[in-house]
C-alpha cells in the first residue's frame, strides 16, 4: 500500500501523530494512509531521495531530524527559518517544502484558553528543544517579557542569546530554584513548564509547588507535558484556583496546521480537536 503521509523519527513507536492525522483523513473521507517510519539519525539523506519519500504528499518530522532536514529543502517558511527547525515537509514533485507548526500550535492552544501572548509577562521552566521553539514564538508575538529558568543557567543563557540574535528580544535567564521561581512568578501572566519534571516515565518532579502561590490569580499555568493528562504541577495549580493547560492542545494543533499545509484545506479546529481528544482518551 502506498504511503501518502507519514511521521519520521527515531524513536517513533509511541508517536500519537497517526491518531491525529488519520482522524482528520477519516472525517474528511480522504483515502490517504498515514504511517510511522523509523529513520535513524544519519539515514535521512537517503530517505529524502527515495521513491517512497518523493511519492508522498508530505511528512512530519520528530527527533532527531528537525534540523538535519533543513539543508535538503527547496523552501523553508519564516517560522522554520527563525526556529532553525522543521516539523512539516510538503512534497511537490521533486521539491521538498519545509514548515514549522510547533510554535503556532502552542500559541493556538494558549489562545483557546482566552490568553493573548502579546504584552504579557511569560516565565518558562527549562531550556530544551521545545522551549527554544516556544520562546521564539513568544518573542515573535511580542510578549512583554520572557524569562527562562533552567537548572543549568549557562544553557539558558545560550538559548536566550540565540533568541535575541534572531528576534532582537532581550531574554532574562536565571536558575531553576524555588526561591528564583517564586520571585519571577510574582509578575507572571503565563507560566510554561518545558521540563520533563512530572512526565510519565520520569521519576523526578518539582521538589515543591510553593512558587505557584506567588502567581497572580488570573495567571495561566501551561505544562507542555500531555502524559499524564494532569501532572502534579497542574493538579497543584488547580487546587489554588489557577487556570491550567496541558500539552495535548499544542500537539493536536501543530498536527492540524500540518494537515492544512499537506492538503491545501482549512480545518474546523475545535471540531477536530474534540474528535482527536476523544480518540486519544480511548487508547
Walk me through the topology:
Blueprint: E1 5-9, H1 17-28, E2 34-38, H2 44-48, H3 51-54, E3 58-61, E4 75-76, H4 78-83, E5 88-92, E6 95-99, H5 102-112, E7 121-125, H6 129-140, E8 145-150, H7 153-167, E9 172-175, H8 178-185, E10 190-193, E11 220-223, H9 232-239, E12 243-245, H10 248-263, H11 269-281
Parallel strand pairs: 1-2, 1-3, 4-6, 7-8, 7-10, 8-9, 10-11, 11-12
Antiparallel strand pairs: 3-5, 5-6
Q: Strand content of the residues, in percent? A: 15-25%
CATH superfamily of the largest domain: NAD(P)-binding Rossmann-like Domain
Give the termini distance in whole angstroms.
25 Å
- CATH topology title of the largest domain: Rossmann fold
Structural class: alpha/beta
The total beta strand count reads 12
Which value, in Å, is the CA radius of gyration? 19 Å
The low-confidence runs, each spanning 5 or more residues with pLDDT under 50, are none
Read across the widest sheet, the strand sequence of neighbours is 2-1-3-5-6-4
